[in-house]
Structures
1.
Amino acid sequence: MADRKRPYVIVTRKLPDAIETRMMELFRVRLNLDDAAMTKDELIAAVAEADALVPTVTDRIDREVIEKAGPQLKLIASFGTGVDHIDLNAAKERGIAVTNTPGVLTEDTADMTMALILATARRLTEGVDLVRKGEWTGWSPTSMLGARLSGKRLGIVGMGRIGSAVARRARGFNLSIHYHNRRRVHQELEEELEATYWDSLDQMLARMDIVSVNCPHTPATYHLLSARRLDLMRRDAILVNTSRGEVVDEAHLVTMLQRGDLAGVGLDVYEHEPAVNPRLLRLPNAVLLPHMGSATLEGRLDMGEKVIINIRVYFDGHSPPDRVLVTEF
Ligand code: 8YV
């Protein structure tokens, strides 16, 4: 490809070597080899010169950044599925296309959701800590008792790709599947999962042993699990979140755990990421992960390949396969 025809692509974080190498072959690229997250000024400078920007969840591409974009910026090809870090309306107004990488991190995120359900119900991190600290004095019939999964009810908030993948796994653990979603899913899927649909999130929350948050963060889902709704949950229930922290009122969640109004939480995401509420850190019944739900080698490669395809297809003059439409949110 002649250089003048190659789009100039700025990548905000270090990506897997194989992806960066392929990008170098296909585009004019500025990589970020030391992986330091860009400041707002650096993002503004990047959109002033790039034809395509490849950000991640750690970059806030807000209206202010988008309004500073030069006329050459045509595409924001995000490395990740969630697009809540990008102001989609501002991009649309400027005629800038936005793409993401859906589908390729479904299985990995669902695996991590199950891992958090198991770890929280069976007190995995408490057990690990006991052994590592040399404080384990031997087996006892009444120590480290958790909750049995088999036969319990799992309520999935958001039955999209990831929610359905969680449900399939959960069936293998003999959990019964319940869900709340904007729209009821197809009958075949409901039958396959033997899933019970709840139009009322309030009513579902009040009856579940385990609640899993699997919906995206949008203006409509911000604090969907509000203080009032969290208070509806059973005292012996657990909550896991591998989606976005903003969907849950985190401060109230912590207060409930401190008061013993909830049995435990498993969190991979936080409302003010990467800050983790210090009160959470002190709670033994909180299993806390550093936003690693999709962190597999295979997943990162697949995400990178999707980014490359979206850029190529767009600059070949076609609609990219993973174009995000504002109306979806
Ligand atoms: C990604 C995620 O790793 O894709 C998402 O929405 O939350 C993560 O698992 C991250 O977004 C990369 O930008």
Note: Residues 56-57, 79-82, 105, 293-294 surround 2-keto-D-gluconic acid (CB under 6 Å).
2.
Amino acid sequence: MRITLRLIAALLVAASLVVAVSTYLQVRAETRKLTEDLARRGSMLADALGELAAAPLAARDAAELSRLVQTYGGREGLVGVAVFDPAGVALAASASLTPDLRAVQLLAPRALGPEGRVSRLVRDRYIYAVPVRDEGTLVGVLAVVRDAAAIRTTLSRMWRHNFLRLLSHAVLISLVSLLIIRWNILAPIDQMTGWMKQIRSGETSAAPPVARGLFEPLASEATQMARSLAAARAAAEEEARLRQQGQSLWTPERLKEHVKEKLEGRPLFVVANREPYVHARQGKKVQVIVPASGLVTGIEPILLACGGTWVAHGSGDADREMADAAGRLPVPPEEPRYTLKRVWLTPEEEEGYYYGFSNEGLWPLCHIAHTRPIFREEDWRHYQAANKKFADALLEEMGDVRDPVVLVQDYHFALLPALIKRRRPDARVALFWHIPWPNPEAFGICPWQRELLAGMLGADLVGFHIQFHCNNFLETVDQALECRIDGERFAVQRAGHLTLVKPFPISIAFSEPPVRSQAEPSQEALRKALGATARYLGVGVDRVDYTKGIVERFRGVERCLEKHPEYQGQLVFVELGAPSRTHIKRYQEHMNEVEAEAARINARFQSKDYKPIVFLNRHHSHAEIEPYYKAADFCMVTSLADGMNLVAKEFVSARADECGVLILSRFTGAARELHDAVVVNPYDTGQTADAIRYALEMSPDEQGRRMAGMRAQLKENNIYRWASRLITELAAIRL
Ligand code: G6P
């Protein structure tokens, strides 16, 4: 209230000052105007009367002078006329002039001096005196006195008028200020205070009530703070619960402490092609996009927990403007916890290294999904150069950190470990391969297999998701290179360097209790948005990639509807397909296949308000995907080949209600861990159709049992455990 009063008082003082100064200037101008008018008229009359009085004055004709002053002294607006001899002695004056005669007497004789005519405003009288000459001789002075009371009246009317105006402004200013303060400041503060109290006491997790206006930045900061508080509270509760139960699950806090101890406080370095935050231009705005990538889902929680540096390709069209001159920026943008270092590639480098060698060569080579790998010499040269470029960027980031620990990610960087080790033998380098490793015969078709393997074996530790891929890798190395395989330790000894090869099944940041997301649409709302009146909802979430078995999945739905017509009109399958690597011809063809297959199947079964397959072909954020996971009766992951597939784990993580069924391809790494999924061979359409029906008819009890089993598995084997194992293993290696 005191602030309100102070603000209003300050506004009023400012308004009063403005009105006072402007009125003063107005009054001064008006006075000048009225006085000039009096002077003009006084001068004309005095001149005219002076001429009439010249002769009688020269003759000292008192009677004539008296007649003159009486005759003209009574004119309208005139108070009177007076005549003086050259010595300043009054010779005649109008009777009405008596009260003012003294003032006239004091002024009039000055007209005899060098000034000549004189005039003055004395109280309400305007006196104008002129010297009178008769044939050139000064014979006296004539003064006319006009009534000037009108000036005072006009001026005081002006003051009064402006004062009233000020008064009305003051009332208006006070009222408007009060309302503005009330609506725009006090009410939002009240709401925020109430919200903060509720947040503090844990009564709500909703967004702050103030989303716009003056308090928007504050509200957004408060939201971040509330989120951190909620996360810290949940972590503390979880820790307490675990202590209580004598368990020791891996949490971000535990990982942080563990890494601190293992790395003796040194920072962690990660190199991965895909960046966790892409800045993309959308009209005039810059949007932050979290890309659809299992790698980002897996790796980011580790950096969020432990801090460090993530070296990645800056692929967004607004990436440069959001980073500093060295390509660095703190992330996540809303609450920075680690550094993202962006490496810039030319379009030719990106074409050759990323699209060409990595994704037209190595990707189909490692995923046996019947797309022929393409190996071009030019792409290989770009791949080598890009690996070198990333190595240089990483070496620069590492600076003089002694014994740095580096986690290199994926098939984009097979050459990086050796490049790093050559220049920093003190570095501990792990390479984690997120995709499958095929058998030696399949891998052997790569013209540069020896160079790739030699680059990889620069690492101290090479990790795959499953033992099967480790075995394939060891066999490949054995057949392609001169080296010694240590079958007991699962290691490769080559040119005096030892590389351990081990499985580390990657996971997600499973959280329990689940993080409550705000304003999540209900299953009903979701169905409405899809235009689905159907009873059952199935979901698939993928990058649109030929390894994901999306077409096979659609055919499974088709076969199910064929075999079990009772589900026609009742079952809707939603595919959230993020466009991926669309620059590559095979991906464009695949996108067309997926669209055509959905259209073909829909044409068979659709009616006015039903179609069995909804293909939502765009990027969906985690927040957008989550409600689908929660609403689905089943989730289908039908990859033809997949290192792990974290979508399967995300679906399980979202189902805190222990409902819903996971249909999972046996060709995923996840199938080795999630034994309670309904496992299928996606090439077997009939089996997939049966699995869908089985899922739809599964009793709630069985769903609960299976889901609880998978959740317990995930809870134990989360991404923090994965990172702790990898880092412990790496730190234990004797260089
Ligand atoms: C796979 C790869 C990741 C990659 C992701 C997305 O999961 O193993 O390294 O990040 O696909 O692919 P993209 O080409 O879009 O990075």
Note: The radius of gyration is 47 Å.
3.
Amino acid sequence: MEQIFITGNGPLRGEVTVAGAKNAALPIIAASLLSAEPLHISNLPDVRDIGTALQLLELLGTQVQRTGTELVLDSNQIHSVRAPYELVKTIRASILLLGPLLARFGEADVSLPGGCAIGSRPVNEHIVGLQALGADIRIEAGYIKAKAKRLRGAHFAFDVPSVTATENLLMAATLAEGVTTLKNCAMEPEISDLARLLQSMGAHIAGAGTSTITIEGVKHLHGATHKVPPDRIETGTFLAAAAATRGSITVLETNPDYLQHVLDKLEQAGCRLKLGPDWIHLDTDGKRCKAVNIHTAPFPAFPTDMQAQFMALNALAEGSATVVENIFENRFMHVAELQRMGADIELQGRTAIVRGRERLQGAQVMATDLRASASLIIAALAAEGETVIDRVYHLDRGYANIDRKLAELGASIRRA
Ligand code: EPU
């Protein structure tokens, strides 16, 4: 099994270009099932979760042509509506196939995703929402079996603003008969982006990116061309790494509007920021950051996907801070690993109290999930001596070429 070796090597400096967003690309890929005409997608990130999602689509009959960051998906000849457990268990976003399959083919058979390292992550909102649109849904032998002649527009309010449940219902409603109003929707930028794609496929949608979305169903959607937007979490991860190593970097081909709250926290930590239309420059002036309190919450507040990275930053900062995880009940697996590197972190339920240390020490640690891996990388870049990170396949699920990009910024990093 591959490991990453990092030796703390001083400040990160230079320029880095971020890839397209994994969490925007996944619903886009699922949306290709809504039309019999091809989707042309560019800026596709080279990460493992995308490969798995494409494998799943091929299994259903989608023709997949991938050349570098370009992708053509043709779902004209779908011969199966079954997403099997073997693939779904490795990528929870497979649940995104449920809405499109049901809407276009009147049937879907998607495995329940099961447990996850960061929390129980139920899918009840997806199921209840589709039932509100008239689907007949049963759970049988670990599978969600859904049927509907044609979905019907309805009013539905989510109990919790779920990102993928909002995406699922949004996609399903585009082909339903009549008007659907969704309330208490998640407002993440990936949802607005999905709505833009669906609109260019011929869907009638208003309000995406706000808590109420209205969709007027149409009979058919057509093909479209779409560019995956930049990855806001990859952007934030590089910025946090530069801040932790007292560096100075410019992140290119990004969108500063997507991570305002993260940028505010970096400024509070003492970093100087300059923003352009598609770039962010961060400079620490060689100084150690100050610890900053973090409360994760749905967009536009501080993202749970940046919590682990800021835990590492706080562990190295001056002063102490609290980090409260409000989205997932078990997203603190990185804490025990950071403690192995000398971090002073006390856990009290959903709150971590972090007392910053001037230095951490390299150690042998284990990645437990995608963003936990990123926090260990950040800690290792700023630690004294060598850190060996095990189970780096978690990292490869969501970060494209991160070792090369960090090496170009001056990190001493290798994989074996
Ligand atoms: N929830 C329910 N019932 C549901 C769905 C969600 O109770 O049916 C709860 C969850 O347990 C959680 C909260 O709602 O407490 C929010 O979860 P959400 O459904 O929004 O998460 P998700 O859609 O499964 C996406 C991202 C995650 C990201 C979360 C939160 C994708 C493919 N995944 O997951 O990304 O953490 O939103 O922003 O978009 C990652 O990239 O590392 C990652 C985990």
Note: The pocket of EPU is lined by residues 23, 26, 92-93, 119, 121-126, 160, 162-165, 186, 303-305, 327-328, 370-371, 398 (CB under 6 Å).
4.
Amino acid sequence: MRKGFIAVKTDVKKLRNRSMLRSGTHQKSVRSFGCSECPLKGRRVVEGTAALATVDVVVVGEAPGKTEEELGIPFVGKSGQVLREVLKYAQLENVYITNVVKCRPDRNETPTPLMIKCCKSRLEDELRHAVNKKLIVACGDIATEWLTKHGEVTQNRGFFRDTEYGKVMITFHPVYVLRSLNVTDVLGNDPLNYFSHDFRRAKEFLTTRKVCKDITERVQVVKTSEDVQNMLDSFSVFSQTGEVCGVDFETSSLDMFDPQMYVSSVAITQGKEKVWCVPFKFLEPSLVEVASRAVQKVLDTNNLVMHNANFDMLVAHMKFGCCLKSVDDTMIMYYLLDGSRGHSSKRLKRLAMDWTDYGDYGVEYDELLGLSEARLIDYNCKDALVTVELREKFLHVMQSAWGESMINGYNNVVKPAQLLLFWATVNGMKVDVAYGIQLLKDLQGKIKVIG
Ligand code: URA
């Protein structure tokens, strides 16, 4: 048994009694739902497991399996044991467990769009009757797609989404968790770790109603010329420490060469505790020039860390005239640790979710332009604070995995190479990335032959 888990034997009798407690109103006849068109018509309907009116959390899976069909109760087979153990481990009570499709598809296959469509009103009915629910947990692609319209679980796991049905947290399907035990990533975590982590965060949400950490106390906002001076004074002391500053720019577009593009806000941390924010979009026009010069000074006199620095370095240089001498890029650090992952798994919010305890502070990109001043500052500052934390964690994992020589390699080869690439780009040199990749492949091939 995994450390931290309590063995739970599902008490089927108790569950059966509880399922009798359902409000009843949603247990309508087959005809009042969409069953007549459904390929699974006539199969045993497996509905949820609690008194709907009293539930705090609704957990939604895919469709019942063989054991569930036999017993008429969702999630009581092997994957159900995993789910129920994790619920207990996270101390989640008053949970209603159900599925997108209520009957078992042949050979436990993934339900077809028609099955999902025919069963839609059943789940809608359950969700409607769970009047006191505070959170819905979507387990796996099918439930995530149904509830949030973003079915890609590996990318969205751990995030909370506001939907027409209420707040939804996305997590793995327990079958996937069960199949991937011991398949660990660079952090040494397997899907079960992430699955239980997600449910602990669900519990935290129920108690605090917060999906992310509160950083208000740590934020200094620059809105007046006095604030500008305070920021400069504070950084002139901070620079002496040699510690890093996390930097993040929020911009009106991602096209650096769009003449309309402007910087709406900049956040610069002092280590990982304090963060200064200059919300350019909300500044008095008379202050923009002096605040920009202050930003340039701070960035030029500190060791910086950025995420996906290729973009932010261009912004720093082109919009603020920065010289940029020392920049760590957390995206490259992560790539060194786990280059096999797709680009989107290196998104800052995804990494923040997996490597820090900031939680879900994400904002959809198209929401960014319309954010209020307070939300923009909060979001921008979190991005910068998370970036510093990631650097620290990545260095730690690099150190324990590879030792000092790789850290030296990173500091003396990778970092300077990135700066070189950056300066080559801003000086108009055409850098052919595809050619570089091909060159690397050829070299690797030759090294293999020599070896
Ligand atoms: N998988 C599901 O999605 N639901 C169950 O009830 C059992 C297994």
Note: Residues 61-65, 68, 74-75, 77, 79-80, 99, 175 surround uracil (CB under 6 Å).
